[in-house]
Amino acid sequence: MNILVTGCYGQLGRELHKLANCDGDHQWFFTDVDTLDITSPDAVERCFNEHHIGVCINCAAYTAVDLAEDEPETAARINALAPQLLAKTCLKHQALLIHVSTDYVFDGNGTMPYKESDPINPQSVYGSTKAEGERLIRETGCNYIIVRTAWLYSSSGKNFVKTMLRLAETHDEIHVVSDQRGCPTWAHDLAIALLSILNKKEDLPLQETFHFTNEGNITWYDFACAIMDLAGKNCKVNPITTDQYPAKAHRPAYSVLDLSKIKTYTGMEIPFWKDSLKKCIEEISKNV
Ligand SMILES: NC(=O)c1ccc[n+]([C@@H]2O[C@H](COP(=O)([O-])OP(=O)(O)OC[C@H]3O[C@@H](n4cnc5c(N)ncnc54)[C@H](OP(=O)(O)O)[C@@H]3O)[C@@H](O)[C@H]2O)c1
Known about the structure:
By secondary structure, this protein is of the alpha/beta class. It has 9 helices and 12 strands. The chain has one domain (2-157, 184-216, 256-271): 3-Layer(aba) Sandwich (Rossmann fold), CATH 3.40.50.720. 40% of the residues lie in helices and 17% in strands. Strand 3, helix 3 (72-93) and strand 4 form a beta-alpha-beta unit. Helix 1 packs across helix 6 (187-199). It is globular, with a radius of gyration of 19 Å. The two termini are 37 Å apart. NADP nicotinamide-adenine-dinucleotide phosphate is lined by residues 6-7, 9-12, 32-33, 37-39, 59-61, 63, 78, 82, 100, 102, 130, 149-152, 157.
């Protein structure tokens, strides 16, 4: 099976690349905007034709949540129109599209973990464009699996874990919001989950949406405390409210995703957030 990965220089794409190096069962084609701009119909069609793509894993996205408020058209082109183009191309080539979406499609006013079937109500440009991407994919009628995830981090790229470690180098104390709850997710674990979906695709229902995060849920404040603790940093973390840390884009207060569907269908065991955070911090400290 020939597999196309888009956005391969991002957090998730890099983790998939590492895993694919140990996978002899498939032929992988890793691309990012310099080799395959997913907004370009000609480039996408050419790529599917030349490489006889059977599965496309779309890791490309516009992920700058605050900047998206000022750049809604760019965000929509990459997060909504490009996934539609990939979906139409998959339909034409009878390929499966595995697409990654976000907890930000929900409004965050809930109190119970969100199920895949719960109504969406995005509150930011980023969330709206990702929700529109999902809708446009479904509308094409192609075979797709959408995987919504949340609070992604890894040893590469820009993410909360790396920001906390950087701040710890220059600050004795920091302030972090304690009234937003979610599920941190190590990109490595998400990449393993996507591989598992890929390898079980014959047994999975297609045209379906799944949730995947690490197990457990915490606030950003809890997350920051755990990062400092596991990395042995002497930086005090103080809890603050969202009102005390104004950001351009609205963040959901409660964005815990229910994981029962993916566990039932794939039988996968999902690592607990703190175990994965420990492994990622060990990886980061080895790379320094
Ligand atoms: N990060 C999170 O906390 C989070 C949370 C929930 C869901 N997600 C979703 O998870 C997925 C993976 O996220 P991530 O954190 O790995 O993202 P990321 O690190 O921002 O990587 C996205 C990659 O896509 C590339 N890209 C942008 N426009 C492109 C285009 N037109 N054609 C091809 N590639 C393009 C980016 O290149 P440039 O860097 O040059 O733009 C980047 O290499 C995304 O769908 C995201 O929405 C992420």
